[in-house]
Amino acid sequence: MQKCDSCRAAFNWSMLLKSSLWMYKPIECENCHAKHKVTMTGRLTVTAIVILPLWLFIFFLSPFENTLVTLAFGILIAFIGGLLAPYVIQYKGASEE
Fold it and tell me: What's the domain of life for this entry (predicted)?
């Protein structure tokens, strides 16, 4: 899990998830109030763990004949990827730009 660049306090999972759901809104450290923004690498990583498995499953790996079942499992895979996003997303202090 990512930590604050200034005070090394760990960000909590829900704070990072909310940031990624709201178009990568900058987060503020609860301890020292330093602002942090998502890096471009972090954005690409989140896209890769959410969209790429979904796309691969739906178009290449689907064992189901029914389109709705395939779509439901694809959405489930994307949802699980979204829940894992806070563990891999990368932030940088706003003053380090």
Answer: Bacteria
Tens-binned pLDDT, residue by residue, of the chain (97 aa):
788 888 888 888 888 888 888 788 889 888 888 899 989 998 899 888 888 888 888 788 777 788 888 888 888 888 998 899 888 888 888 755 4
Q: Where would I find the beta strands (DSSP E) of the chain?
A: 27-28, 35-38, 91-93
Helix, strand or coil, per DSSP, at residue 2: coil
C-alpha–C-alpha distance, residues 46 and 87, integer Å:
10
What is this structure's pTM?
Answer: 0.73
The pair of structure tokens assigned to 66 is 């029914």
Q: Which two tokens stand for residue 86?
A: 């806070």
